[in-house]
Amino acid sequence: MACSLVSGIECSALACSEARQIMCMATLAVRMQPGNESAAQAESGASDPFGSSAASFIGLSDADELGNSAVDVCYLEGSSVGWQVMPALTRKSPWTAVGQKAKLRIEAAGPCKIDRIFTLHDQQEIAPGLAYDVSIGDLHAGDVCHVPVQVCVPAVAAPLVDMDMLRFSLLYLDAVKIEAKAIDSSLRLARPPASLRLSRQPTCSLLVLERERNRVAVSELLSRVAAVASAGYVAVATDWLREAESALRRAVSANDA
After folding, report:
1. How far from 240 is each of 17, 81, 224, CA to CA, in Å?
2. CA-CA distance, 40 to 81, in Å (whole number)?
3. Rg (CA), the chain
4. What predicted TM-score, i.e. pTM, was given to this entire model?
């Protein structure tokens, strides 16, 4: 198994006299090394008494009746409201994991402070504004996890060629070699004088960053909407949903297929 951790930022430079919030993102990707796919599949098939196919869980007759769309559609519990999932869902189990107990530590560096982490994974505050742990859990071949982070960057007294900004550390247990592993990735920000013409080129995909940030924001909004509606404020909940829908339609990532 080859696990990679890369980090990026929405702009690579910020004037030393300027203070603002900047979006960063860590991307975790898991892939099998060439030649290991068949061995991993054989090992997982031998140790998984239930198998990894959808038919093993819902029965062959049910699978034939439902067709492939059975694993491509999610339904709201207790209702017939559903939506299509792209790409198709893949069933996973502890027997098919190639990494376990993965934890992403996010640490602010220099004068920067962590303002918010956009993730649906459980997170633990180690030091307010300075360090957080995000529980990723099991890692499967083909997994890609994006974790956007909003950072408060203050003004500095003098220009800096490279200012330490954020550090990501991934800790996990390699389930194939049965050994603990760690991967680090750091972000730095150029702080040139305000008189110098800035090159604010991003070092990550702004489309993916916006999409992941909106996905988490909408999920949190739906929880608040459900609570407000349950309290009897249906009109308020409806207005929130309309505003969110309007904002999402204006987002650049709305046209991302």
Report:
1. 37, 20, 9
2. 37
3. 22
4. 0.70
| Cβ atoms of residues 63 and 115 within 8 Å | no
Q: What is the pLDDT of residues 31-63, one digit of tens each?
A: 866 555 444 444 444 334 333 333 323 333 333
Tokens of 153: 């960057």
Q: How many CA atoms within 13 Å lie on the side-chain side of 39?
A: 9
Instruction: Map residue 121 onto helix, strand or coil.
Output: coil
Helix (H/G/I), strand (E/B), else coil: 113: strand
Q: What distance in Å separates the CA atoms of residue 191 and residue 64, rounded to the nearest whole number?
A: 60
Structure tokens at 132: 């957080």
**Measuring CA to CA, how many Å separate 118 from each of 97, 114, 134?**
24, 11, 10
CA 77 to chain CA mean position, Å? 24
pLDDT category of residue 201 using cuts at 50, 70 and 90:
confident
pLDDT at 246 over 80: yes
Q: Is 132 exposed, middle or buried (0-12, 13-18, 19+ CB in 10 A)?
A: buried
Helix then strand then coil, in percent of the chain rounded to 5, is 30, 35, 35
| For range 148-168, the mean pLDDT | 93
pLDDT at 56: 29
The encoded tokens of residue 86 equal 């792209």
Identify whether the C-beta of residue 210 lies closer than 8 Å to the C-beta of residue 201. Answer: no
